[in-house]
Amino acid sequence: MAGILAGFFLRGKSKIIIIADRVTTGAICLLLFLIGLSVGGNEIIINSFAKIGAQALVLTAGSVSGSVMISYFVYVYVFGRRSK
Amino acid sequence: MRASLFIVFFFSAGIFCGYYSLLPSAMNDSALSIYALNLLLFLVGIGIGSNNTAWDMIKKNNAGILLVPLSVIVGTLLGAALLSFWLTGITLRDSLAVVSGFGYYSLSSIIITRLEGEALGVLALLSNIFREISTLLLTPLLVKYFGHLAPIASGGATSMDTTLPVIIRFTGKEYGIISIFSGIVLTLVAPFLITFILA
């Protein structure tokens, strides 16, 4: 939340924003590297990686199809459009 | 797409180093990740706060446009809840937390790792990356059969950046604005919803 406030006051200052953007990318990479590090050291996760991948795929299928269905209703009934 | 490959690369490099114990175990200390996470949350906040388009759209306060991210939230949770009954070894609560990332894999996997441990964090990372990739691949089909809002819904939080170009390409500029708005709302909602579900 402090970040949103800071960002609001920094709106015009595009240079700072660009720097913040770059640092964000760096921070994300660092964090995922760290997560990967502890995952690699964890045998239980390594051994069940295929199972986790399959679960991930099912959850993705559920969330994508669910949100597409509901948005279709909004599209047809609220936006008043029909797909061709 | 390039950004996600980059992320997968760093994640895999981490797994590799961890698996073969290439780095001193002090690196594995979670205090380091907590500092990095706090920094990241602050930076993400700056990004959202400094986004002029977002403030303009919130000022206009169009009721119809608010329904788009709302329908994504409801649809995502419902769809995942239904399918999670099929899955063994994962609770409804954990499934809902994973999909509440809305494709925002970097932040959601990090928060979930902090709150629930690495196993669920990895699941969140994979599931949300799949969401982004499938949106990139399926957008033409989604637009054809389910209308112009479908890729925006499928993209979730990514519809404001990574999947935006392909969404605009197949739906048009006016949907680009809806797409950015929906993505921003979901990006904002995701960390709170995850924390709420896992609390």
Distance between the termini of chain B: 32 Å
Tell me the domain tally of chain A.
2
Q: Summarize the main sheet of chain A.
A: none
What structural class do you assign from the helix and strand content of chain A? mainly alpha
Give the rounded overall mean pLDDT of chain A. 74
Give the number of domains of chain B.
Answer: 1
Terminal Cα span of chain A: 43 Å
What letter string, H or E per element, gives the SSE order of chain B?
HHHHHHHHHH
Global outline of chain B: globular
Proportion in β-strands of chain B: under 5%
Structural class of chain B: mainly alpha
Unreliably modeled segments of chain A: none
Cα gyration radius of chain A (Å): 21 Å
Helix content of chain A: over 70%
Assembly state (oligomeric): heterodimer
The average pLDDT of chain B is 81
Low-pLDDT runs of chain B: none
The string of secondary-structure elements of chain A, in order, is HHHH
Question: Which chain pair shows the most residues in contact?
Answer: A-B, 69 and 92 residues
Largest sheet of chain B: none
Question: What is the topology?
Answer:
The complex is a heterodimer of chains A (84) and B (199).
Chain A: H1 2-9, H2 14-40, H3 43-47, H4 49-78
Chain B: H1 2-19, H2 30-49, H3 52-60, H4 63-84, H5 92-99, H6 105-116, H7 118-146, H8 150-155, H9 164-171, H10 173-198
